[in-house]
Automatic annotation (TrEMBL):
Region (Disordered): 171-192
The protein's name in its UniProt record: RNA polymerase sigma-70 factor (ECF subfamily)
Domain of life: Bacteria
Domain (RNA polymerase sigma-70 region) ranges: 18-86
Similarity annotation: Belongs to the sigma-70 factor family. ECF subfamily.
Alphabetical list of SUPFAM superfamilies matching this protein: Sigma2 domain of RNA polymerase sigma factors, Sigma3 and sigma4 domains of RNA polymerase sigma factors
GO biological process terms on file: DNA-templated transcription initiation
Record-linked Gene3D superfamilies: 1.10.1740.10, Winged helix-like DNA-binding domain superfamily/Winged helix DNA-binding domain
UniProt key word Transferase: no
Keywords: Sigma factor, Transcription, Transcription regulation
Residues covered by the RNA polymerase sigma factor 70 region 4 type domain: 116-167
Amino acid sequence: MSIHDTGPPERERRFADLFTATYPAVLRFAERRVHPSHAEDVAAEVFVVAWRRLDDVPAHVDDARAWLFGIARLTLMASIRGERRRQALAVRVSEDPTAHGHVADLDPDLVARRVDLARAWSRLSAAHQEALALTVWDGLDAPRAAQVLGISPVAYRLRLSRARKALRAHAKALPQTPASRAVPATPRGSST
């Protein structure tokens, strides 16, 4: 049997024949590899590619099915890469507290504070890291940061407040470094 045996190659008819002949197999292929709730989405993406590249689909139904399985596999791999990229988007403080200067040029107290901050930062959730980073490093106000995250400005402000509180709590829970044990400087204008 051939998908292209229907006479003149009308695009819609060819696609309908391809879909009818192969959709159940493509769906089963996806169901064996992802959660059943995602399998239909994978199959749909496969057939979007098939529609766009209909001229590349092999004529014989078994060859077409194998070709579609290859597209499904690539779709699944792209999904996995996308998930890894989303996880990699978690904002990180440099592990090396001296990355922005030479060790000899840095104040030891500043280095110790950076180490403490990096440790506290690593204990934050990805959501808290992102909320802090959008405001502190990216300079976004609450409405714009909320837009980036797809939440309301009120929800963003709440998340930012919780993130700040969590960062302070994690910083306080760390073992004290010499810089953090130092006696605070006397406020200006006061006498000792």
